[in-house]
Amino acid sequence: MTYSMKQEKEPIASWHKNVLVITAVFTVIAIAMGGILCVTQSIRSCPDWPGCFGKILPPLEPSPILEITHRFFAGMSGLLILASLAAFVSLNILLAEKLRRLFSKSN
Fold it and tell me: What is the pLDDT of residues 24-66, one digit of tens each?
C-alpha cells in the first residue's frame, strides 16, 4: 500500500494558519514600531521596565505611549511565536503517530 499526502485533507489546520498569520502581523507591527521609536527618539521616553517611570501606565505623552505600545506588540509577538511553535510540535507528533499506525498496518 502506498501512501500519498493527497489523501490528507490539509497538512496544516486552518486554526494553525490563523495563528501564523496573526503572529506575522504582530511581528511586522512590532518591527515597524521599533523603527518609528528609533526615528522619533522615543526609546528613551520610558527608562525602566516593565512600567514607565515606576508606574504601570505611561504619562499621556506621545513618546511614552509609543514605547509602551511597542512593548505590548513585541510581547504579544513573542507569545504568539511560542504558541505557533507549540502547535507545530503537537501537530507533527500527531502526524507522526498517524503515519506510524498506517505503516504498521501495511507491514
Answer: 999 999 999 999 999 988 888 888 888 888 888 888 988 888 9
User: Considering the entire predicted model, what is its pTM?
Assistant: 0.71
Residue spans per domain, the chain: 14-106
**What SS3 state is found at 13?**
coil
Q: How far apart are CA 69 and CA 37, in angstroms?
A: 10
C-alpha cell at 65: 505611549
Environment class of residue 81 by beta-carbon count within 10 Å: exposed (0-12), middle (13-18) or buried (19+)? middle
Give the Cβ contact number of residue 79 at 10 Å. Answer: 12
Is-cis flag, bond preceding 11, omega within 30? no
- Helix, strand or coil, per DSSP, at residue 66: helix
What are the two backbone dihedrals, phi and then psi, of residue 8, each rounded to the nearest 5 degrees? -75, 145
